[in-house]
Amino acid sequence: MITEFQNTSLKVVTSEDGYMCRIDNVDSTLVSKLNFILNSFYSGQINYFSVRDKQYICPETISFFRGFRPFSQNGIEITEREKADYFQKFFVVGEKGRAYREDILDEGIRPYFGCETIETDIIELLKFVNLNLERHGFKKIEMKVLIAHLGDDLTASYMFLLNLVHNIGRRWENKSRSPLVSASYGHKGFKTALHFAENKNVFKYSYIIFGFIRENNVQNYFFTKELNEKLGILNSEWYPDIHNEIILKDGIFPQNIFGVFEVDNQTGLKSFIINPYFYQLINLRKGKKIYRPRDLIQFISQRGIPVEQRNFEEFARELGYQSYGYRFGDGYVTAGRIGGEADTHLPSEPLR
What we know:
This protein has eleven helices and 18 strands. The protein has helices at 31-43, 80-93, 104-107, 119-135, 143-149, 154-168, 189-198, 227-233, 276-282, 293-303, 312-318, and strands at residues 8-16, 20-25, 48-50, 55-57, 61-68, 95-96, 180-185, 205-214, 221-223, 245-249, 251-252, 257-264, 270-274, 285-286, 289-290, 323-327, 333-337, 344-345. Helix 1 (31-43) packs across helix 10 and helix 2 crosses helix 11. The longest helix is centred in the middle third of the chain and has 17 residues, at 119-135. The two termini are 35 Å apart.
């Protein structure tokens, strides 16, 4: 078993009368099945032989981890009751980029939310990127080289620079309004995310999201390790990626969250609070038979976790969001105000 799941108790949010919630232990008869699926995604070793297709099937997903801090509305550590209530909402809403805590139609970063990219947008971001590059002793990027490399596509150039300022621009004035979210992946992903979650954390617990994304959704993620390669083409460079970072466009969607680790900062003891919709899927029956883990792995890899979102608007508002994004099966994302239509078409160009 993967180290992160050793000596880890498995929990799930259960609902009382549809509203009052608690966090319970999972059904003991499902533990081995849950561990098999979770470890398969975590390790990436999810190859299995398909008798029907007479070949090995390997669903292509990337697993990642992100440290975060759930707070009650008054900013102090949440109680056990508040925790259950929080995660009931969280597993319906997911974690969106910080931009979505504002009204993106009025306050969203332009031109990302609803405006056509113009040359001035490129000049503004490139100026900030070059100031940071030169401050650290690296060569600046020439505008004509950037535009030429990306085929004179202004939107593609803007998306590349947006990724750069998210990565290197700690002094970027719009950092707190970025639509992007950082996470860690690979065999050090959990430890890296835990380190960030523990940093300046005065509370009892640290929390780490365990999620995944399909490899072919290339417009929605970027590996920071590729940054130097891309900058090299543009005659510049940046520091090596020591955190195994993956940048996710628009946030971590609920259908891509297996659950959240809760780690005691004093003892190191861990619980894993499972996405209740993932848990329901594990216990789903086809006729009189429970679905096999291998079939579930393939289903989740291809279609994500089916999440019931009839309370999405209510839950999103209570978690502090004013806007939301909607991701289609092919990875395309639209956005809008909560309570309205998600009819703002977001750039689909990759962050590379």
